Amino acid sequence: MPQTADALDAVAVRTWCSLALDALGREREAIDAINVYPVADGDTGTNLYLTAESAAAAVEAVFAAHETGTSVPSTADAVRAMAHGALIGARGNSGTILSQLLRGMAGVLAEGEGTGSLRTALARAAASAREAVAHPVEGTVLTVATEAAEAAGRAPDGAGAAAVAQAAYEGARTALEATPGQLAVLGRAGVVDAGGRGLVAVLGALVEAVSGRAPERGPLLFTAPSVAPVPAPAAVEDCPAGEDPQDGPAFEVIYLLEAGDEAVQRLRTRLDGLGDSLVVVGGDGLWNVHVHVDDAGAAVEAGVEAGRPYRIRITHFAADRVHARPEPAQRAVVVVVPGDGLGGLCAEAGATTVLARPGEPPASGELVDAIRRAHAREVVLLPNDGDLRHTAAAAAEQARTEGIRVALIPTRAAVQGIAALAVHEPDRSFDEDVVAMTAAAGATRYAELAVAERQSWTMAGICQAGDILGLIDGDVAVIGEDVPGTARKVLDRMLAAGGELVTLVLGEDVPGTLADALEEHVREGYLAVDTVVYRGGHQCAPLLIGVE
Questions:
Q1: Are β-strands 275-283 and 286-293 bridged in parallel, bridged antiparallel, or unpaired?
Q2: What is the enclosing helix (H) or strand (E) of 369?
C-alpha cells in the first residue's frame, strides 16, 4: 500500500494490476454479452482481460528482476512496465483504448518517485485516450474515463490516493449508467457501454489497491440485453450518437508499429480514409494500431509505408460470427500439467500439454498457442487449477474467434485432469465426450501436500513454518509433522466418504517407498479400492492425491 498520500508506489501498482486482472476475469463473460458497439462481436471483455493480463505480466517481470536483492522496483519502473505491457498486448478497440489510459497515467506517475498526483494522472489518461481515437463518440469508455477524471478532480484538496480513487470510481459508475441515453445503439439493446463497464472494474481494483478495501458495488442498471440474446448485429461505425448504420467494415486490423511521430501522423490520415474505429496509441517509436476496414491489405501496406509493422492480426467480422459445427471433427485435448512427469504421461495419451512451472502459471497466450499447436477443429481444455479459470476462459474465447470449437472443463487439480483424460474418446460426438470428461473430473476429489512457509491460521488450526499441510479440495484439512503421516490422514479423510480408485502423483524428491506404504495403507484399510501411482517430476507439491 502506498506510503505517500495521493500517490501510487510500485507495490500498489503491482497489486492494482493483479486485482484488475481478477476483476476483468470475473466480469469477462458479462462484458462480452453486452458488447454491441462499435461492433457487436462479443469480445470486449475478453480483449480487456488479455490487455490487462499483458500489463500485469510486465509488472511481475520487473518485480522478478529484483527478487535477488532486497529492494523493490521504483514507481517509475513499475508504471512504465504496466503501460508497455498493455501497449504490446492490447487487443481490440477497447483494449487499445485501455492501454492508452494506462500509458497516460504512467506518464504522470513516473515523473517522480511516488510523488505523481493520481488525480493528474487520471486527467492525463482521459485526455490522451481521446486524442488517440480518430472520431471520439460520447456514451463510450471515453466518456466514462472523462467523467471519472473530473470526479477525481473534485475530490477535496489534500485527499489521499484512496479518496481520489474512490471519487473516480463513483464518477465512472455514474457515467456508465448514463451511456444508454447517449448512444442510441446501447439504448435500443438495453445495455451500458461494454468498454465503460470494463473501466469501472479496473477503477474498482484501483480503489482496493490503494485502500485495502473493495468498493461497494451496487447493482448496475442496463447490465444485460433487454432481449435475449442480441442477434449478431451488423458492425456499427464510429458515428455521432443517434446514428446507427447497418453495414460496417469487414475486417479488424491490429498491429504493433515501429515508426516516428511524423510517419504516424501520416498513417492516421491514411487509415482514417480507409475505414473507421481508428485508434493509434503509443509513443517513443512504438505504437499499437487498430482500425476497421474493408481492405485489410491496404491497412497493412499503410503500416509498411510508415515503419515496421509486426504482430499483425486480421479478424473477419462476418466469419467471427459464424458458429457452424465442422464435420467431420478432428479433436484434441489441451492439458495444463504441474510437472514434466505428468506432461509425459498426458502426451502419451495424445494430449497437448502446457507446463505450469512453480510460481509461473501459464498466461492465456500460452494456452492459445497450445490450442493452435493441437491442429484440431475441436479442443477440450483442461486447466487443472482453479486459479487459471479466468485465464483459460479468455484463451478459449480467443481460440473460438479463430474458428476453433473449444470446450473448457473447469478442472481444479491435475488428478481431475487425469480422470477426464482417462475417459476421453475422440470417436464419439464432441458433446458426449465433453459430458463424460466433465463427469469424470467432477467425481474426483483432490488433495495435495504442501510445506507451510510461515506460521498462520488455517481451517485445521494454527500451523508453524515447516509443518506439512494436507489440503483437501483446496482447504487445509490436516496439519502434520511429516509427509507419510499427513498423507495417511488425508487419505483416511477422503476415503471415509467412499471411493473406488486412488491416484497418487509423487514429486521429484519423494521416495518410491512412500507410494508403497500408502498403497499398503489403502489395501489394508479399504477393500475393493485400487491405487495407481504416477511420477510427477519437478512439481510444486510433494504429493498429489485423487479419489474417484
A1: antiparallel
A2: helix 364-373
Q: For residue 249, what is the DSSP state?
A: -
Q: What is the pLDDT of residues 235-265, one digit of tens each?
A: 333 333 334 434 578 888 999 999 999 999 9
Cα separation of 418 and 423, whole Å? 9
In the chain, the largest separation of any two C-alpha atoms, in whole Å, equals 79
**Are 351 and 380 in contact, with CB atoms under 8 Å apart?**
no
Q: In sequence order, which residues have a C-beta less than 8 Å from that of residue 191 and are 6 or more positions away?
A: 34, 36, 180, 222, 223, 224, 225, 226, 230
The DSSP code for 356 is -
- List all residues 6 or more positions away from 262 whose beta carbon is below 8 Å from its beta carbon: none
Can you say whether the dihedral through the CA atoms of 461, 466, 468, 471 is positive or negative? positive
User: pLDDT for 78-113, tens place per residue?
Assistant: 999 999 999 999 998 999 999 999 999 999 998 854
CA gap 170, 147 in Å, rounded: 9
Predicted confidence (pLDDT) at residue 536 exceeds the cutoff of 50: yes
Q: Sign of torsion, CA 248 249 254 259? A: negative
C-alpha cell at 255: 498491429
CA nearest 408: which of 336, 326, 511, 306? Answer: 336
Residue whose entry in the numeric block shows the C-alpha cell 474458428: 403
List beta partners, residue 83.
none
Nine-digit cell string for 317: 467480422
CB 44 within 8 A of CB 235: no
CB–CB of 119/164 below 8 Å?
yes
Question: What is the reported pTM?
Answer: 0.73
Q: How far apart are CA 198 and CA 301, in angstroms?
A: 32
Give, for 175, the enclosing helix (H) or strand (E).
helix 161-182
Minimum mean pLDDT range among 76-90, 172-186, 532-546: 532-546
Q: Which amino acid is at 508?
A: E
CA distance 408 to 412: 12
Of the pLDDT bands very low, low, confident and very high (cuts 50, 70, 90), residue 285 is very high
In DSSP notation, 94-140 reads HHHHHHHHHHHHHHHHTTTTTT--HHHHHHHHHHHHHHHBSS--TTS
Backbone phi, psi, residue 467, to 5°: -65, 155
Spatial contact of 405 and 374, defined as CB atoms under 8 Å apart: no
Q: CB-based contacts of 70: which residues, under 8 Å, 6+ apart?
A: none
Strands 251-258 and 308-316: antiparallel
Q: Which residue do the cell numbers 472523462 mark? A: 146
